[in-house]
């Protein structure tokens, strides 16, 4: 699975879940995913409850996430909780802590613990 | 790649002022008033200010260690990451648990001070009722996801430190016979005084988990160093005011409310009530900040399967309710026990000891990570590597052991050390025997 495929799956999970759509309604954020081993940035945009993804960069992101593309793919496909690589120093984030926690909660609500 | 993160400016970032106020605010607990009295007792009187100043200068070097580590791994998981990368996972977990428990100690200790302050100010209402009500109020607001506005959080630290500076100067200037005191006289227990002085700065480094919210990496080191200076000046002056206005430190220790006495001396009833207000806001900020950060930390440990999944349960407001309640109840039980027994010194000694050992560990981590990850980008370098961090590590190791071995009562028994060892044993038992079962249970459920 590629990172883009994982992100598409993540978006589908978010958009097809009524609770998550409601939860994300007032959470308008731009998230830049920066693989630190390949020059292939991706992004996630949450706007009015809809989450979308794409390849490339995004201006003035609210969150910047850096990790290897393998870890990013694992996190957004539910094979790994974001906290595992985060607490190991293999995934670094820049942005507001509430937004970081919100992303973790999204993965928790989609895939459980 | 990494350079893209630098090119893309974040939409919201925190200013240097927040780094200063967070660092100073997290270190500014109400129990610091009593810690200043204990420092004065050990320093033998008016040289307490010097012991606090020396402790502050030493902590600047620990601050430099934290700055290098923070630049290396700017993460809210902070020590969890640094120790894991610098030593190993098990030691990291054990240290993180112990470190987190110091937050609970400080909450309990602040509840003790708050209870005594209110029982002095409003004697008709039992102190325990104040403790339960105020801790309950903060827990409730946390569980509802209500955040204290940043401006209030920011202001509190500056109000406390500003009040201490102004009131202390007023008391010192008005004190008679200023020339008769020995401001540089070092008593027999002066090393203990410095060791306990560490407690006054406890928590200044807890600003490092905010690293992800700053655009400029220099804000955290600058914020920590400015905060250390402000704390040293404010509490140095406070201890000086205490010791010239009340030369018998024993009287102060038994009052449990030295800050109210200084307020009364400085401005009469107005000063007294202003100090009651400042104690209230300081303790409430400690409760709020402590419970908020510790509950998220517990949640994160549960998410990485180091604690049972029960701790990662969220309420409908997306707050880790079980983690929050567990911490609040533990803090309340400890606070009530301390209040009933009146034995608060072991919390100060244990807190000073744990923090000093953590500062010693920060030196070890700087050296270990320089060897293990030499190529990783370091925006901040400690000075005089490896000699300075080596000496700083040894010094804090000695201070930590000294603080833990300091007697906590007339019996001369070091209950701080007993308390510390009990926690180490409990955490070790959990990691060695219970954690594998927790992980196995969750793995089998996920399979």
Please describe what this structure looks like.
The complex is a heterodimer of chains A (about 110) and B (about 450). Chain A is of the alpha+beta class and about 110 residues long. Chain A has one domain: SCP2 sterol-binding domain (Nonspecific Lipid-transfer Protein, Chain A), CATH 3.30.1050.10. Chain A contains five helices and five strands. Chain A has helices at about 5-15, 20-25, 70-75, 85, 95-110, and strands spanning about 30-35, 40-45, 50-55, 65, 90-95. Chain A has a five-stranded mixed sheet with strand order 3-2-1-4-5. In chain A, a hairpin with a 6-residue loop joins strand 1 and strand 2 (about 40-45). The radius of gyration of chain A is 13 Å and the shape is globular. In chain B, helix 3 (about 30-45) packs antiparallel against helix 9, helix 6 (about 90-120) crosses helix 7 (about 125-145) and helix 9 packs across helix 16. Chain B is mostly helical. Chain B has helices spanning about 1-5, 15-25, 30-45, 50-70, 80-85, 90-120, 125-145, 150-175, 190-195, 220-245, 250-255, 260-265, 270-305, 320-340, 345-370, 385-405, 415-445. The interface of A and B includes residues 30 and 93 of A.
SSE topology sketch:
The complex is a heterodimer of chains A (113) and B (447).
Chain A: H1 3-15, H2 18-23, E1 29-35, E2 42-47, E3 50-55, E4 63-67, H3 69-76, H4 83-87, E5 92-95, H5 97-111
Parallel strand pairs in A: 1-4
Antiparallel strand pairs in A: 1-2, 2-3, 4-5
Helix pairs in contact in A: 1-3
Chain B: H1 2-7, H2 16-27, H3 32-43, H4 48-72, H5 78-86, H6 89-121, H7 127-143, H8 150-174, H9 190-197, H10 219-245, H11 249-255, H12 258-267, H13 269-303, H14 321-341, H15 345-372, H16 387-405, H17 415-446
Helix pairs in contact in B: 2-8, 2-10, 3-4, 3-9, 3-10, 3-11, 4-9, 4-10, 4-15, 4-16, 5-6, 5-15, 6-7, 6-13, 6-14, 6-15, 6-17, 7-13, 7-14, 8-10, 8-12, 8-13, 9-16, 12-13, 13-14, 15-16, 15-17, 16-17
């Amino acid at each position: 699975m590629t990172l883009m495929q994982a992100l598409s799956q993540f978006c589908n999970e978010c958009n097809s879940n009524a609770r998550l759509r409601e939860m994300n309604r007032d959470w308008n954020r731009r998230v830049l995913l920066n693989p630190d081993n390949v020059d292939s940035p991706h992004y996630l945009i949450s706007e009015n409850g809809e989450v979308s993804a794409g390849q490339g960069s995004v201006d003035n992101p609210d969150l910047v996430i850096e990790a290897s593309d393998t870890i990013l793919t694992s996190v957004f496909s539910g094979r790994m909780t974001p906290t595992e690589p985060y607490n190991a120093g293999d995934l670094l984030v820049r942005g507001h802590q509430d937004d970081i926690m919100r992303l973790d909660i999204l993965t928790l609500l989609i895939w459980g613990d | 790649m990494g350079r893209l993160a630098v090119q893309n400016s974040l939409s919201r970032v925190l200013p240097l002022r927040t780094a200063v106020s967070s660092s100073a605010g997290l270190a500014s607990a109400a129990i610091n008033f009593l810690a200043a009295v204990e420092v004065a007792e050990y320093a033998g009187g008016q040289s307490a200010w010097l012991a606090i100043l020396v402790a502050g200068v030493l902590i600047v070097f620990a601050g430099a260690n934290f700055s290098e580590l923070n630049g290396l791994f700017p993460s809210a998981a902070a020590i969890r990451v640094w120790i894991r990368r610098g030593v190993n996972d098990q030691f990291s977990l054990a240290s993180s648990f112990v470190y987190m428990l110091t937050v609970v100690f400080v909450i309990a200790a602040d509840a003790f001070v708050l209870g005594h302050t209110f029982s002095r100010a409003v004697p008709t209402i039992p102190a325990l009722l104040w403790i339960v009500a105020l801790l309950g109020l903060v827990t409730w607001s946390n569980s509802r996801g209500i955040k204290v506005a940043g401006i209030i959080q920011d202001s509190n630290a500056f109000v406390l430190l500003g009040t201490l500076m102004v009131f202390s100067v007023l008391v010192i200037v008005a004190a008679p016979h200023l020339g008769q005191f020995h401001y540089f006289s070092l008593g027999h227990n002066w090393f203990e005084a410095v060791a306990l002085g560490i407690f006054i700065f406890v928590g200044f480094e807890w600003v490092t988990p905010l690293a992800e919210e700053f655009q400029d990496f220099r804000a955290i080191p600058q914020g920590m160093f400015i905060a250390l200076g402000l704390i040293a000046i404010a509490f140095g002056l406070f201890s000086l005011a205490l010791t010239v206005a009340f030369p018998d430190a024993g009287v102060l220790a038994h009052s449990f409310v030295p800050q109210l006495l200084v307020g009364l001396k400085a401005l009469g009833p107005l000063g007294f009530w202003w100090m009651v207000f400042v104690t209230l806001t300081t303790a409430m900020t400690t409760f709020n900040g402590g419970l908020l950060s510790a509950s998220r930390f517990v949640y994160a440990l549960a998410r990485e399967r180091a604690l049972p999944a029960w701790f990662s349960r969220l309420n409908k407001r997306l707050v880790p309710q079980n983690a929050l309640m567990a911490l609040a109840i533990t803090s309340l039980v400890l606070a009530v026990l301390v209040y009933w027994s009146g034995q608060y010194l072991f919390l100060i000694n244990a807190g000073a000891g744990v923090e000093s050992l953590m500062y010693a560990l920060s030196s070890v981590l700087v050296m270990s990570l320089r060897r293990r990850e030499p190529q990783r980008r370091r925006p901040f370098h400690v000075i005089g590597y490896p000699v300075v961090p080596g000496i700083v590590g040894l010094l804090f190791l000695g201070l930590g052991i000294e603080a833990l071995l300091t007697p906590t009562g007339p019996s001369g028994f070091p209950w701080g050390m007993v308390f510390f060892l009990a926690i180490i044993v409990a955490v070790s038992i959990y990691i060695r025997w219970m954690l594998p079962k927790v992980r196995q249970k969750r793995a089998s459920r996920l399979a």
